[in-house]
């Protein structure tokens, strides 16, 4: 496996992390160049200059969508009279197999706080919330301690660093719904409402928390901002490797039956094969790679032949999947794809908010069909019905992106492993009358 030597110049997100995994609090963080980016932004730059710098850096959202962060910031109203604005950090992280934000928050809570301070200054936001997954108890404790330290040091509150800028920051723990990863559902939950997505427009930049302009960014996205301010755009763009057009580094990893599951901060352009073999140690003895998901449960499966692709937004999209969170899952040759996709679709069906009919009814329907195929009780036409559901729940067909993401693993599993689905079709025996009776009986068992 590659030796991991983290430095400030090569690993802006993780170089401060201690080998014993104890958290880095304020004194140590400041001794390691902490809050240098915030000092530069608040004392030498205007908010618009910070927005332009982040836009020029090429920083993209690290929550999965990959939208330009600086462009998103620039969508906030220019009207100076709209002085009530909010910055929200999406720290819900309920994507199965994803734990990158947790590592950053538990080990470097001040990195996120500094990133939010700089971002709030750029957005002219006077208050921020970290919407945290409720199960992240340790992260919540460390963030609250770090926020208290920042207050005592004058890095939060009134007239921060003598700049005249005021900013308050709070931790809000969620009640545990996957749909809160959608930014407007997160806003509804923060307000004490049911976590349903909102119709757009208006977008949060115009009408977000309590009807005020709001920007929502991911933990890893915000954690990149301090280094960009401290070291500049040319340095940040130069961090990526190979043929990648994406700037900076990314938290990437592999889970599944690999020898060394984990995550690492790596430059965009690092190939999936390098992560799997050099960092994750390859597949365990006696196992081979059958398929892999590039970035979470809601991304399309890819094959061994795709492993030499650079891990970035463009190349993974061209292969027919999404980079997502960039924490890949390895599927070994002993896994049945019908069972695996059934398990995934059960999760997504359970986590649907139920707001729109295609998602509310379509995902449970796919689970019923997959359960029948898994038991060898599928009917002729079931696979075609699943394919129809994938199209009907695709982009633009539902109220939010939950269902389109949910059917990505299903549609790709059928595409690459159709024979495993066909093996679940009931094979009739006997004469035509007996066949008809068997099919009718199983139809009653497997349909609502």
Protein model, in words:
The chain is an alpha/beta fold. The chain has three domains: 26-237, Rossmann fold (3-Layer(aba) Sandwich); 249-332, Ubiquitin-like (UB roll) (Roll); 337-446, Up-down Bundle (de novo design (two linked rop proteins)). It is 42% helix and 11% strand. The protein is built from 18 helices and eight strands. The chain has helices spanning 26-31, 36-44, 47-57, 69-74, 100-107, 109-123, 137-152, 183-190, 219-231, 233-237, 272-279, 313-318, 337-351, 357-374, 382-392, 402-406, 408-422, 432-446; strands at 86-91, 127-132, 168-173, 214-218, 249-256, 262-267, 289-293, 327-332. The strands form two sheets. Strands 3-2-1-4 form a four-stranded parallel sheet, sandwiched between helices. Strands 6-5-8-7 form a four-stranded mixed sheet, covered by helices on one side. α3 (47-57) packs across α6. The longest helix is centred in the C-terminal third of the chain and has 18 residues, at 357-374. It is globular, with a radius of gyration of 24 Å. It starts with 25 loop residues before the first helix and ends with a helix.
C-alpha geometry: globular
Major β-sheet, in short? 4 strands, parallel
Instruction: Look at the structure and give the mean pLDDT.
Output: 92
Task: Kindly provide the name of the CATH class of the largest domain.
Answer: Alpha Beta
Q: Provide the structure class.
A: alpha/beta
Low-pLDDT residue spans: 431-448
CATH superfamily of the largest domain: NADH-ubiquinone oxidoreductase 51kDa subunit
What is the subunit organization of this protein? single chain
How much helicity do the residues have? Answer: 40-55%
As for the CATH topology of the largest domain, it is Rossmann fold
């Amino acid at each position: 496996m590659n030796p991991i030597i983290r430095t400030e110049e090569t690993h802006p997100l993780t170089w401060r992390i201690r080998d014993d995994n104890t958290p880095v609090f304020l004194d140590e963080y400041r001794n390691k160049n902490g809050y240098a980016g915030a000092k530069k932004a608040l004392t030498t730059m205007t908010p618009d200059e910070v927005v332009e710098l982040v836009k020029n850096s090429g920083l993209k959202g690290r929550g999965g969508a990959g939208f330009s962060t600086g462009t998103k910031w620039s969508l906030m109203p220019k009207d100076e009279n709209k002085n009530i604005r909010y910055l929200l950090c999406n720290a819900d992280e309920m994507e199965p197999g994803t734990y990158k934000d947790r590592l950053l928050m538990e080990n470097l809570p001040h990195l996120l706080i500094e990133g939010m301070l700089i971002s709030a200054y750029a957005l002219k936001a006077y208050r921020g919330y970290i919407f945290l997954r409720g199960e992240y108890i340790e992260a919540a404790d460390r963030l609250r301690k770090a926020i208290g330290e920042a207050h005592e040091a004058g890095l939060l509150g009134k007239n921060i660093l003598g700049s005249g800028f005021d900013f308050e920051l709070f931790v809000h723990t969620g009640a545990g719904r996957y749909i809160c990863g959608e930014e407007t559902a997160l806003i509804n939950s923060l307000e004490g409402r049911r976590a349903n997505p909102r119709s757009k427009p208006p977008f949060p930049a115009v009408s977000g928390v309590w009807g005020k302009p709001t920007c929502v960014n991911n933990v890893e996205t915000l954690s990149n901002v301090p280094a960009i301010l401290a070291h500049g755009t040319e340095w940040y763009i130069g961090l990526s490797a190979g043929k990648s057009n994406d700037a900076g580094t990314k938290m990437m990893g592999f889970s599944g039956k690999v020898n060394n599951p984990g995550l690492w901060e790596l430059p965009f352009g690092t190939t999936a094969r390098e992560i799997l073999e050099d960092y994750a140690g390859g597949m365990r003895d006696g196992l081979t790679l059958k398929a892999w998901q590039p970035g979470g449960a809601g991304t399309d499966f890819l094959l061994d032949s795709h492993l030499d692709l650079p891990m970035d937004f463009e190349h993974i999209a061209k292969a027919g999947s999404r980079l997502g969170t960039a924490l890949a899952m390895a599927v070994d040759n002993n896994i049945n794809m019908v069972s695996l996709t059934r398990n995934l679709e059960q999760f997504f069906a359970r986590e649907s908010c139920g707001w729109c009919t295609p998602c509310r009814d379509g995902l449970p329907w796919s689970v019923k069909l997959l359960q029948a195929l898994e038991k060898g009780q599928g009917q002729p036409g079931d696979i075609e019905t699943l394919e129809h559901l994938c199209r009907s729940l695709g982009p633009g067909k539902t109220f939010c992106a939950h269902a389109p993401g949910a059917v990505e693993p299903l549609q790709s599993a059928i595409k690459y492993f159709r024979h495993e689905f066909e093996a679940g079709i009931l094979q009739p025996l006997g004469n035509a009358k007996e066949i008809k009776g068997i099919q009718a009986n199983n139809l009653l068992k497997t349909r609502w």
